[in-house]
Amino acid sequence: MDSISSIITSTKHYFGQKWCIAAIVGPALGFILLVSTILYIWWRLRSRKEKGGKQFDEYRPLTSNELPFMDLASIQEATDNFSVENKLGEGGFGPVYKGVLNNGTEIAVKRLSTKSKQGAIEFENEVKLIAKLQHRNLVRMLGWCAEREEKLLIYEYLPNKSLDALLFDSEKRAQLDWNRRLQIIGGIARGLLYLHEDSLLKVIHRDLKASNVLLDNKMTAKISDFGMAKIFGGEENEANTSRVVGTYGYMAPEYAMAGLFSVKSDVFSFGVLLLEVLTGQRNGKEHFEEYGQTLIRNMWHLWIQDKALELMDPLLGDSCPINEAKKYIKIGLLCAQENTEERPTMSMVVHMFRSSDETVFPEPSQPPTFMKHRDGSTFFNDNKVDGSSSSINSQSLGFHSINDITISEIEAR
What is the pTM of this model? Predict the structure, then answer.
């Protein structure tokens, strides 16, 4: 019996110790697990914050009174968290939203698309560049944001949107009378002149076109979208790129053929745009299908036959003086010449605008008929190109749909 009592006593003592250990170890393990979970969550949040901080630090030198950093929460509030109702449109960079800040300022927010491979480069290029450019004919950036996974560019809101929204709409184009068109063209010319000659930097836009010209409530033209712009330093006047990016129809032949670009490349684009404003027609697919050639080629053929006025926008009626119309057609053709040396500079263009006698200008030579790639193939269209897009050759003469996507890339000069 004593041995049985001893066994029972030992058993109680053993299990008592186990329960005691369990009572101590159980909560301790729970506490360790809780601390580990908290530490893990803290580490994840810190990593995310550090990642966002690195993005901010990358652009910190750009922050100034002229180009402030804006926090994401304020932009989300202004745009109603990027609601569909506030969406203005979408481009290669990503969607654009309208917003209203707490002080009542209306803004347009470009939001980098998560699917955009080139957008991050375009974002950096535009933020670094626009901080140094200020002119009434350039769109004004109010701020920028690089927080969490978001990259945002904040601009002044321009109620009349882009020039192409009016110019190529048969009903809305009626708002653009002769004087208003001259005002728009003059503003674009002065903006380009500033970029090429008057700013602290010599800037080549490389993607001047109707959709990249915005209009404010007074129809003042403002050049936008500097994601593809290039800065020239010192005495540099020309550069070469191994990858051509831009918009067919506006691209100068030397740029499309050999990747060479300069201020004269922008002048070519301006010439095309000027003729589009005068005629209300695109230099591309629609005009080619109707006339069998581009707008600039058709205009030149009519010019040498003294019939160029036939292409003027019929909506202008008799509101445009004949001599003025001829002068602006001639300037457009001079800008769109194939030979870069024959094209005027933007300072010469502005001077010609102010001249009352177009007969003193040189006679324009013919614009390019077609352009050749380096591999020998040819193209003749106005669609987007990113260096890998299929081109239109002389046998097929097929066309792709026109869109508003711009592919951007920064290359070393």
Answer: 0.74
